[in-house]
Design brief:
Low-confidence stretches: 234-244
Strand order of the largest sheet: 6-9-10-3-11-12
Helix content: 25-40%
Shape: globular
Structural class: alpha/beta
Largest sheet: 6 strands, mixed
Order of helices and strands: EEEHEEHEEHHHEHEHEHEEH
Mean pLDDT: 86
Number of helices: 9
Radius of gyration: 18 Å
Oligomer: single chain
Number of strands: 12
């Protein structure tokens, strides 16, 4: 479904390689979680896949189509959706407008629009006609952006720390939504997270550190070691968890 071949990315201002020779295959319908220390390259990797970082080396394939030569719009048209850790705001655009734009359907029924908001823990009647502007909190904007990704019905959905700024009740709704999408087999998901609950939902977990894929395995293989090393004050990346 998604394949990366020798993908690298360099921060030119500092002459520093942030990603180095990433090789990765993600199967259709898989729920993959990327975790690891801050600054290890998780978000950069996701943004390179989405076309938000220019100048990457290597090849990126999505559903048999090579997309590394496409811009952000081209990759979106190829079936990729991306939810930022800190979403942008759109003054003058309502939540309804945003969901309709994301879906690509001007005839989408009211109930369908409202269902996307309910899936992320928002009351539709309170938000559907509000502007996506500074009047909304960071957590509200985050949930609205995730709803727009759901409305887009992308083949590959990338979520950068979706739990950030979200209260516990909404977080529970969000994890239920991830489980629902996964059970339907309707989309492949890549989720960047440090949250134990989200990590435990994964089919596969990859620990990213120092710009490389350091370890990978199931949550049962990866999570206990992460928790042990965290409590012991020892980085998980210093010990072998599961060979690539």
């Amino acid at each position: 479904m998604l394949e990366l071949k020798n993908v690298s990315w360099k921060l030119e201002e500092e002459n520093k390689w942030i990603l180095r020779d990433i090789n990765l295959k993600v199967q259709k319908g898989e729920r993959l979680v990327l975790t690891g220390p801050n600054g290890g390259g998780k978000t950069t990797l996701a943004r390179v896949i989405a076309g938000l970082r220019e100048g990457a080396e290597g090849e990126i394939w999505l559903d048999g189509q090579r997309i590394d030569g496409l811009d952000i719009t081209g990759r979106a048209r190829a079936g990729l959706g991306y939810a930022f850790q800190q979403p942008v705001r759109f003054k003058g655009i309502t939540v309804r407008d945003l969901l309709l734009l994301a879906s690509g359907r001007s005839d989408l029924k009211e109930e369908a629009l409202c269902s996307y908001l309910r899936d992320v823990g928002l009351c539709p009647k309170d938000y559907i006609d509000r502007e996506v502007d500074a009047s909304l909190s960071g957590g509200e904007v985050k949930r609205i952006e995730i709803a727009s990704i759901l409305a887009r019905n992308a083949d590959l959905m990338i979520f950068d720390e979706p739990e950030a700024g979200i209260d516990l009740w909404s977080f529970a709704r969000l994890t239920e939504t991830f489980e629902q999408i996964h059970s339907q087999g309707s989309a492949t998901m890549i989720i960047i997270s440090h949250q134990e609950r989200i990590i435990s939902l994964a089919d596969e977990v990859i620990v990213v550190g120092d710009g490389t894929l350091r370890h990978r395995g199931t949550p049962k293989e990866i999570l206990p070691r992460i928790l042990t090393d965290t409590l012991g004050g020892c980085p998980v990346l210093n010990k072998e968890v599961h060979a690539l």
